[in-house]
Automatic annotation (TrEMBL):
The keyword Signal applies. This is Alpha/beta hydrolase fold-3 domain-containing protein. InterPro entries: AB_hydrolase_3, AB_hydrolase_fold, Carboxylest/Gibb_receptor. It comes from the Eukaryota. Residues 103-325 form the Alpha/beta hydrolase fold-3 domain. Residues 1-23 form the signal peptide.
Length: 348
């Protein structure tokens, strides 16, 4: 079932994931997975003979940074020219504030799609900066399959050192590198978690940058064994298994399956670095909702962190869908409230 392009573009103003919800609503969701459903078609991507992807541009609009706004200003700066990575910074429009906490952010898109400049991410981050009184450092990391994991993790880690170096005027003038939070949504939530683990053993090298916590918004995790929410939710809930399977196939290191710790953090009772995260006293916040196919794995990760003695706070609500916090303003406001309650001593 094809929608007119105009309608598709309209949906893309919100999120690629709600697009799927709309498109897949046309199928009978109580039927088992339709194995002939082509995830490449659903995602508007084409695999090239060399393994790279063509992401059909009409379906993946971006917006420029915003220099005049009553909410936040943004600008793009290079991170690593050799890798073609860059950063979009967001500064709230109430410039008398200095020493702002810094949120280092990774966007969603299953490791293979989208950008910090995707309209709904851009607008979410502009609001994040303003609502929480923070400087946002959003990383345009390398995508798979051209650059499989750990490329995205390494890019976000590199961004932490970039912040530490205070090479940028906004970071130097308005930021407080001793109050950093690593945050991400969907695949970005996964990135925030893994980069947090990597950074937990680099605290001396990162000094004077200090990480206060990790925020995982509907993080994208999985595993070989399907969870209940993966199996029971209809395709109309978005993120059908053909899509998440493809995303893992294209992003995990070659030869790895979905029990790789990049995908399934609960395997083997979790990373040994969680001991370090616990000792450092970082707070980990996880936001999810049970209308999201990824919900059960998110709860598993929450319980793992609890068991391992990490200071973890969950906000798991009923209903909704994957992508809701970066799509709906009212849900974003609830999420910001949750953030304030978790990081009450740092956030506005
Ligand atoms: C959807 O599929 C189920 C099971 O195959 C069937 O009972 C139901 O009538 C179908 N609904 C629609 C709207 O086609
Ligand atoms: C699966 O989806 C394709 C494409 O939408 C459709 O042509 C086909 O009839 C579907 N098959 C089943 C068994 O539902
Ligand atoms: C900042 O916000 C104020 C009012 O909210 C507005 O008047 C002003 O034009 C904004 N500044 C810029 C540079 O956009
Ligand atoms: C810039 O921010 C204003 C809100 O302050 C918004 O209306 C406008 O769409 C933004 N422009 C871009 C290019 O994002
Ligand atoms: C993912 O890879 C597995 C194993 O190679 C394969 O069986 C499966 O069809 C692939 N799934 C997708 C959606 O590409
Ligand atoms: C999630 O956080 C919001 C905002 O603080 C709060 O209103 C809501 O009750 C929380 N929900 C749960 C299930 O913890």
């Amino acid at each position: 079932m094809e929608y007119p392009t105009k309608v598709l573009l309209f949906f893309l103003q919100f999120t690629i994931l709600t697009l799927h919800i709309q498109a897949l609503d046309q199928t009978n969701s109580s039927k088992p997975q339709n194995s002939t459903t082509d995830p490449y078609k659903l995602l508007h991507i084409i695999q090239n003979p060399d393994g790279s992807l063509t992401r059909i541009k009409d379906y993946y609009p971006t917006v420029p940074p915003n220099t005049s706004s009553s909410i936040s200003f943004s600008k793009d700066v290079p991170l690593n020219r050799d890798k073609n990575t860059w950063i979009r910074l967001y500064l709230p429009n109430n410039s008398k504030h200095v020493n702002l906490p810094i949120i280092i952010y990774a966007h969603g898109g299953g490791f293979i799609l989208l950008s910090t400049a995707t309209p709904n991410f851009d607008s979410f981050l502009s609001n994040t900066a303003r609502q929480l009184g923070v400087l946002v450092v959003s990383v345009e990391y390398r995508l798979a399959p051209e650059h499989r994991l750990p490329a995205a993790y390494n890019d976000v880690l590199e961004a932490l050192f970039w912040v530490k170096g205070k090479k940028d005027e906004w970071v130097k003038k308005y930021g407080d590198v001793s109050k950093c939070i690593i945050m991400g949504e969907s695949a970005g939530g996964n990135i925030a978690y893994i980069v947090g683990l990597k950074a937990s053993i680099l605290t001396r090298q990162l000094n004077p940058l200090v990480i206060k916590g990790l925020v995982l918004i509907q993080p994208f995790f999985g595993g070989v064994t399907r969870t209940r929410s993966e199996l029971k939710l209809p395709d109309s809930a978005g993120l059908p298994l053909v899509i998440t399977d493809l995303m893992w196939n294209l992003s995990l290191p070659l030869g790895a399956n979905r029990n790789h710790p990049y995908c399934n953090p609960v395997i083997g009772a979790g990373s040994s670095k969680l001991e370090k995260v616990k000792k450092l006293g970082w707070r980990v916040a996880i936001a999810g909702c049970d209308g999201d196919r990824l919900y059960d794995k998110q709860v598993e990760v929450f319980k793992l962190l609890e068991r391992r003695g990490v200071d973890v706070v969950g906000n798991f609500s009923k209903g909704d869908y994957h992508g809701v916090f970066v799509t709906e303003t009212t849900k974003a406001l609830l999420f910001f409230e949750f953030m304030r309650s978790v990081f009450y001593s740092y956030l506005a």
